[in-house]
Design brief:
The complex is a heterodimer of chains A (282) and B (125). Chain A is of the alpha/beta class and 282 residues long. Chain A has one domain: P-loop containing nucleotide triphosphate hydrolases (Rossmann fold, 3-Layer(aba) Sandwich). Chain A contains twelve helices and seven strands. Chain A has a seven-stranded mixed β-sheet with strand order 3-4-2-5-1-6-7, with helices on both faces. In chain A, helix 1 packs across helix 12. The two termini of chain A are 15 Å apart. Chain B is an all-alpha fold and 125 residues long. Chain B has a domain of 54 residues. Chain B is 34% helix and 0% strand. Chain B has four helices and no strands. The chains are: A alpha/beta (282), B mainly alpha (125). At the A-B interface, helix 3 of A face loops of B.
């Protein structure tokens, strides 16, 4: 079975979807097979992966998969992402559509939170990593992702609300009551990735200074050496770069964009991907 | 006696799930609101006291929470008529009344300066 990582933050705009797609690209560059499960009804991860919803040719999405909840049913909805070359071969996606929102009203049924876990059972055995992108919420859709995951990864922008949302996400995942409710006692918190950092902004500098004290060893570094894993103050933050938005808008991996900033971002995510893979496979 | 539990044949394969077809749904939205019994409007006097109030949130220092609870207990203990319940919110409403009655004394840009202007009797006799 693939290692499943649910990406979350209670706050929107913290960089969850960007991190999901950039990590998917980085792992593909390292020869890893990646399945992205889009659990956000906005479907932004799907579009950025070149699998946007086409009303004239609708395909299966997480909406149908969760609605069914049958064991293994998610296999029917997997498709190669729309990225070129080896990215398209190695990164697959179960896209999302706006009507995934309708699954929220079904949350009150016993066992509803396990529908995605059931649907993915046996489906991602041939992948190295399954990334579950979630919406900025800790409600049912995010809980579906957490119930199916082995790890929960918080993504924060270095502003008060972004850090606060990551703390709430971490505390939610670490709460024993949450794990019981999700039927997933083995879910573990993987750490916090800090992105969208702009050192010119005073509020960002302040938050970046505070992060080691706030998150301690949960603050992820972009270096996979044991020394830096144990030293959060050595964490490197992903800077805010236009290249990340350009890659999102043009629906291609950031490394395929020209220019030094795109290479810098791609290299940082390569290092982050190495670090995360080392952590989840230790 | 042990209950007999049906056993699965270990060689039995789980049947594949039924095929799904793409189904784009309209978003669920509320229909006409269900009729409900008439309710008095918020703030009207024919409601319980707590429903006549409007909920507001404030953040207090830990020492304020402790002192407020102690004061509430003392006030409640000293009552001669136990008809009305005294709560932390009762005292907070009194504090707000006191503040508004003394609003003319408030001077300053920070919480500390505002507190000094309100509480310093030498400065504001």
């Amino acid at each position: 079975m693939a290692v499943r990582i649910a990406v979350g933050n209670h706050k929107g705009g913290s960089g969850k979807t960007a991190t999901t797609t950039l990590l998917a690209a980085a792992w593909a560059e390292q020869g890893k097979r990646v399945l992205v499960v889009d659990m956000d009804p906005q479907g932004n991860a799907s579009r950025r992966l070149g699998s946007a919803f086409d009303p004239n040719h609708p395909t299966l999405t997480t909406s149908e998969v969760v609605r069914s909840g049958e064991t293994g049913v998610a296999a029917q909805a997997i498709r190669p992402c729309g990225w070129p070359g080896q990215y398209g071969e190695l990164v697959h996606v179960i896209p999302a559509r706006f009507d995934l929102d309708n699954r929220l009203s079904e949350a009150g049924v016993v066992g509803a939170v396990l529908r995605l876990a059931n649907a993915l059972e046996g489906v991602d055995d041939d992948y190295d990593i399954t990334l579950l992108d979630s919406q900025p919420s800790m409600a049912h859709l995010t809980q579906l992702a957490l119930a199916a995951a082995h790890w929960a990864l918080a993504v924060a922008d270095p502003e008060y609300d972004g850090v606060d949302g990551a703390i709430r996400f971490r505390d939610f995942v670490r709460d024993a009551k949450t794990l019981r409710g999700l039927g997933n006692p083995d879910l573990r918190f993987l750490g916090v990735v800090v992105n969208r950092a702009d050192a010119r902004v005073g509020a960002h500098r302040y938050q970046l200074d505070q992060l080691p004290a706030t998150f301690g060893a949960d603050l992820l570094t972009t270096d996979s050496t044991p020394e830096t894993l144990a030293a959060p103050e050595l964490a490197l933050h992903i800077p805010e770069r236009a290249a990340i938005k350009d890659a999102a808008d043009t629906e291609i991996p950031v490394r395929l964009l020209p220019g030094a900033p795109a290479r810098l971002v791609a290299d940082l995510y390569t290092r982050l991907a190495l670090c995360l893979f080392a952590k989840v496979t230790r | 006696m042990t209950a007999k539990v049906p056993r699965k044949n270990p060689g039995t394969k789980i049947p594949p799930p039924p095929p799904l077809t793409p189904r784009v749904e309209d978003l669920n939205v509320g229909k006409e609101p269900a009729p409900t019994a008439g309710r008095p409007r918020a703030g009207s006097e024919d409601q319980p006291r707590y429903q006549q109030m409007i909920r507001g949130e404030s953040r207090l220092r830990p020492d304020q929470v402790t002192d407020l609870a102690a004061l509430r207990r003392e006030v409640a203990r000293n009552r001669r008529n136990n008809g009305e319940r005294i709560t932390d919110n009762t005292l907070l409403r009194l504090a707000v009344d006191l503040l508004i009655a003394n609003a003319h004394k408030l001077v300053g840009d920070t919480e500390d300066e505002l507190r000094v202007s309100l509480l310093d009797t030498k400065q504001n006799p």
